Write the structure tokens for this entry.
Amino acid sequence: MDALFSQLFAGLSLGSVLLLAALGLALTFGQMGVINMAHGEFMMAGAYTAYVVQSLIADAGVSLLVSLVVGFLVGGLLGLVLEVTLVSRMYRRPLDTLLVTWGVALVLQQAARDIFGAPNVDVRAPAWLSGAVELFGLGVPRTRLFILLVAVVCVTALALVLKLTPLGRRIRATVQNRDLAETSGISTRATDRLTFFVGSGIAGVAGVALTLLGSIGPTLGTAYIVDAFLVVVAGGIGQLKGTVIAAFSLGLLQATFEYSTTASIAKVLLFVVIVAFLQVRPQGLVSLRTRSLA
Amino acid sequence: MAALAVALGLTGCGGARTDAGSSGGSTSSGDAAASCVDTSGDSVKIGFLNSLSGTMAISEQTVRDALDLAAEEINADGGVLGKQLEVVGEDGASEPTVFAEKAEKLVSSDCVAAVFGGWTSSSRKAMLPVFESKDALLFYPVQYEGLEASPNIFYTGATTNQQIVPGMDYLKEQGKTKVFLVGSDYVFPRTANKIINAYAEANGIEIVGEEYAPLGHTDFSTIVNKLKASGADAVFNTLNGDSNVAFFKEYKNVGLGVDTTPVVSVSIAEEEVGGIGVENIEGQLTAWNYYQTVESPANTTFVEAFKAKYGEDRVTSDPMEAAYTSLYLWKGMVEKAESFDVAAVQDAADGVTFEAPEGTVTVNGENHHIAKTALIGKIGADGLIYTEWSSDEAIEPDPFLEGYDWAEGLS
């Protein structure tokens, strides 16, 4: 029974990590259709932001919270620069975007290597996040609870922004029918830029959160980018709800498979499940019904 | 992405047995007229072949630094047989095929007297046929999975009976009876764990779990859950690279600790501690043959010279020390043979000793490994590793574990 609960939590936690990694991508890829291979590197930039902030602010707790904000800005600004300089020139040319952003990813990795050195760096977790809390009779790591919380806050905030704010309405209008939105007086260019800023910013936040779990090195992003795309594709392009469901489903599946087999086999099984699922439902879990998109 | 991940941690690979006896040291000069090593002048060429680019560059650059230091010292001291060493440096680029090409170039067109380098077992396996067919010499400085002994390679890192077996000896001595194995999913950890399983069976230790994570795996919650549920009282860790960070953070966060479930790691050295974070790994154990903190006059000189050349903040580690030692061992062999000739050096190799930073090491002429003292270390709060236990004496290399009854049938 213990094992069941702890695996259930492991699955949810893994799901929250996947969700954080995929959430920004759900915006830039899902809503805008831009295949941004440098998304992982924005996460990496977020992680290094946490490292830099920690070297400025000694208190690990304060610096983590500050990092979450600064990480959002750093990721967002990097995204904004990428959008304005490169991506905006190749909308509707997905293959070119893929190659160019992959190149950018390599440049960013090498830049991190040059600035921070090739060996990994370390971010200390604050004392209030170390160790485990008792929950339903089993020890749950505080860091993982915290990441779950960050993921939930990010999704909620993003959903509220999309639903309630003028910016959200503009984004949704642009996604649903770009031409019509433009005719209605919406500056789709400005909307694109803001969407990219927010999506990349969330990648930065994800990077900060991940410093609690793993290593901080130049290639941090590459470990997550494939999984992030999987989540967005399986969830259905253009819908946050799909991304959320897909992230937690994949997390739970991975944890289940990994418990009953091995980590390597679990990864294989997960891919098999996704491929099979996309055969049946190529549009993903939740699909957006629209007249303008193919 | 997958290819990148694979390249990340190939410290060990393969297990093809090369019979030391068949083409044995002394008789191999037959068609070696091809040797073009020029010893007529007052200098002699040697080759350094390490990855200076690609994923392995982080580790291999440190080995190159140590080799450069050794060459500089030897030259300042009058060279080898009165000849200055002229180093030809090449970049293996973290690619086994590049290692093979560059080895061929160093031997055939640069005409070097010996080559020093290599890190991953796949790079060594790729270079082996080159050195055997050209009848040239390679000095390989990294601990590996054993089961190999080429007459053309000298192995100055540990083989399994000098690192993994002593690691298990230590756990046994500490009264540990339930050991959990965790490793990256490739050949070195799987070979190591095969040996550990055989050892455990013969020594009344129960292996309560054996888990492998794909290279670059970032989420260890399930594996650590299994570890926690297994009731293990010790962990033997053969994880590679970044995975260690995720593993140790998870291990600490679920409330496991050194007091109850210590972890013995075989691929974490001084260089890696900083990236994992001392606070996550303080007090954990490692199995190597050298630490920066080893107390010996030779080590004091080595560490001081290294820091003077490369900076106070640099650390020295086992593979670096093994590389530094390898150049001096080659010097010893050449001086004993009074010749740079490969066959003469092979003949002279047996019994050559060097006062290395790790202690006195001796070359075994039969399998071309060296006798080394095994050290179990404890990671300190300052990020350095301190010797906790050491084998009574230097352990004779036994790459095929022929001297261990329980290992029968493994190789």
In short: Chain B touches chain A at residues 1, 4-5, 57-58, 185, 211-214, 216-219, 221-223, 225-226, 228-229, 242, 244-246, 249-250, 252-255, 271-272, 274-280 (CB under 8 Å).
